[in-house]
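Methods — Computational structure assignment.
A single polypeptide chain was analysed. Its primary sequence is given first, followed by the predicted tertiary structure written as C-alpha cells.
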Amino acid sequence: MKKKHLCFIFASVLAVNAFSAMPVYAEENDALYEDLNYKTAEDGHIIITNCLQSAKECVIPEEIDGAPVTEIADSAFSECFLLEKLTVPDSVKVIGRQAFSACSVLKTIKLPTEIDKMGAGVFDGCPKLESVTIPKGITELPEATFYECTGLSSVVLPEGLEIIGSESFYGCSSVSEIAFPESLTSIGDYAFQGCSSLKTVNFTENLVNLGGYIFQDCKSLTDISVPDSNEMFMDKDGVLFTKDGCTLVRYPEAREQDSFVIPEGCTQLANGCFVDAVYLRNIDLNNATVFGMDAFFRCTGLESIAVPEGTTDISAQMFAYCSSLKEVSLPSTLKTIGDYAFYTCAGLSEVTVPEGTEKLGAYSFFNCLELKTLRLPDSVTEIGDGAMGYFAESEDTEPKKISGFTVEYGVNDTIYNFTETYDLEGTGSGSSKLWIWLTVIGGGVLVIGGIVLIVILRRKAAIPKPVPGGRTGSATKRPEPKKKG
C-alpha cells in the first residue's frame, strides 16, 4: 500500500489540521520546503518527492539551499486532490512516471521550456486540466500521458517530437484539433481513442507508422488528410489508405453518407477500419478479399453485405454488433468463420454457410435472435464453444436457447456432436451411426460365412497318408478358426 493512503487514514482519525499538514509519499529522510518534500541526490541535485496534501497552488523553486532542483520523482504529486495550479521551473530536466496523475482539480500547469525525460502517465486522470505545452527535448510522448484528461482542449506538441505513445490521448473527449509537428513519424495503439470531439486529422510528411485503433470512438471525426509527399499513406476523399491504395486503413466514423464503395485496387481492410461507422447502410466490398479483425465492428446501420469470391476467412468480430444486418452473402471460397464474427447481429434471419467451409469460431453466431435456421455444409470439421443457437440478455446472465432454432446439415460428426452437446435441433446425423450399422451387419455376415466354411472343410478333410519309408507321419490337425477380437 502506498504511504499516501496510510497517511490519509491516520490524519482523518486524529484531526483535520493534522491532515492538512501531512505530505503524501513522505519518506523518512525527506526534508520539507514550504509545501514540498524533497531529497538530495548523491551528486547534489534536488529531487522533489511529494507535496503537502493541503496545497492548492504550488511553485517549485529552481534551487533549495543553493542546490538545483532538477527532478520530480515518480508519483510526486499523484492524488494531490486539492492542487489547482502548479509551476515547474526551467531547472527541472526529468519528470517521473505518473508525477501528476489523479490530481482531480488541477487546471493549470506551467512546464519547463525544455526537458530531457518524461515518464509514462504523467497527467493520467487529471479531468480538469485544460491546456498543456509539452517542453522541447521530448522526442517521445510516453504512453498514457493524458489518459482520460476529459477537460483537455489544447495541447502544443514540440518540434522534434517523433513518437506519440499508445493511449497518450485516450479518452480526451474535449480535444477538437491537434497539430502534429513535422518531425512526427509514429503514433501508437489507441493513441486518440475516445477523442469524441476530434473533427479532422492532418497527417504530416514524415508520419509513416500507425498503431491499431488509434481513431476508434472518435465520434466527430469526418476527415483524415494526408499530404502527397507522404510516402506511406494517402487519403481518398478523407478516407485513409496505404500509399499503394491496396489497404483501407481508416474510414472516419462520423461521415454521414449511407453507402460506400471500396475503390478499385483496394484488396485489404485493416483491423477496425470501419468501427462505429453507424451511418453506413450498404458497403460494396468490390475486390476486397482480406479483412482484419473488427473490420465492421458495431456498424449498427449496416443492413446487407456480399462478401466477394476469393475470400477465405471471415475475421474475428468482423460483423460483431451489426444489429441491423439482415442479409449476408458468403463466398464459395470460404474456409473459416472467426470467433464472434456475427456476434449480436440481432437482425440476421437466415444464413447459408457454403460448402468447403471448415471452421466456425466460438460464439460466431451467438446472440443472433432472429436466426432460426443455419445451413451448414458437411465440410465443417471444427465448431467453437457457443457458436450458435443461444443468446444472453446481458453479460451477467446465463445463456438461453433460441426458440425454434434449427441446424440444417447432412451427415457430419462434428455438427451432430455439437447439436447433441448444446441440445439443438438438427436435420442431419452423425456418420458414426452409419458405421455402427455397417459394422454390425458386416460382422454378422463374417460369422455366418465362417460357419459355412467350417462345415465345408470338415466334409472334405482326408486322413493323412503314411510317409514313404514305413514311418507313420503324425496326423495333421487342422487349426480351429480364430475368434474375432
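Note: DSSP finds four helices and 37 strands in the chain.
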